[in-house]
Amino acid sequence: MKRKNKIVKVTTVLILIILLIFSLFYIRRRNNYIYITQFSPTTSRQMMGYAIKTINGKIIIIDGGTQEDAGQLENYIIENGGEVDVWFITHPHIDHAGAFEIISQNEKIKIDQIYMSITDKEWYITNEPSRETDINEFFKVIEDEKIASKIIQPQINDIIKIDNVTAKILGIKNIEITNNAINNSSMVIKMQVNQKEILFLGDTGKESSEKLIKNQGKNLKADIVQMAHHGQAGATEELYEIVKPEICLWPTPDWLWDNI
Question: If residue 8 lies in a helix (H) or strand (E), which one and from where to where?
Fold first, then answer.
């Protein structure tokens, strides 16, 4: 009888330990969240800027907006510790990379790694000569030794782990596409947190949409998608049908939303 009671006690203790381990795992899993911020334009212009705060407070930035939008992003970064662990620049248009150009010069802010897929300056100017001034400004910033040493040029299907976020690069520069050239060279990033996936398209256009469909296919499926080119004249309907998102993020001011 005593032996039976001892077995029951040992079994009960083991069950309680298993339940405790399961509970701790469940709580950790349930709270394994991120915070994502979509910034609003501070001017009448369109822009795109996102910040992601991971479970342990690491900061990921995607683009950031115009130079005039830099102030709000600077405040966000400083309020969250003053350090950007990873900064993704989808492409060097001023409404995406302008804030980065300003903030990268701020001595109060530390940037650890910068991911961008770029080619030589002449390619951008040749294909969009009207943007020569903006392109020259962008390259002046990224060619500075302090910034250049932090830039990583990813390859297709590269995986970047940032705390509880896994980022996979689905699209990079497309120098063979010269129509709508810079938009069509937007870096495309798919992020996974738990079982949810977020697809950032930058300003992906028709031609790069077709290339993505051909090369990535079902990898494009995601729960959340950032609408390409501010939701106007960007990615193709066919691409969005493959993505089949539950949530669409529209970095789009009212006038653009209304096609004014």
Answer: helix 2-30
Q: How much is the pLDDT for 260?
A: 79
- Do residues 114 and 87 lie in contact, with contact meaning Cβ atoms separated by under 8 Å? yes
Residue 190: strand pairing partners: 168, 199
| Counts of helices then strands in the chain (DSSP H, E) | 9, 12
Question: How much is the pTM?
Answer: 0.88
- Please state, rounded to an integer, the average pLDDT across all residues of the chain: 91
Q: What is the pLDDT of residue 166?
A: 97
Q: Which amino acid is at 119?
A: T
pLDDT in tens, 10-51: 566 566 566 565 554 444 555 578 999 999 999 999 999 999
Listing DSSP states for 52-72 in one string gives EE-TT--EEEEE---GGGHHH
Q: Which residues in the chain belong to E strands, given as ranges?
A: 35-38, 49-53, 59-63, 83-89, 110-116, 151-152, 159-162, 165-171, 188-193, 196-200, 224-226, 247-249
Task: Tell me how far apart the alpha carbons of residues 160 and 86 are, in angstroms, rounded to a whole number.
Answer: 9
Helix (H) or strand (E) holding 230: none
Sign of CA dihedral 148, 168, 106, 252: positive
Predicted pLDDT at 27: 43
- Judged on CB neighbours under 10 Å (0-12, 13-18, 19+), 64 is buried
Identify which of 220, 200, 162 has the alpha carbon closest to the alpha carbon of residue 62.
200
Backbone angles phi, psi at 184, to 5 degrees: -70, -10
DSSP state of 44: S
What is the Cα–Cα distance from 89 to 40, expressed in whole angstroms? 18
Give the total residue count for the chain.
Answer: 260
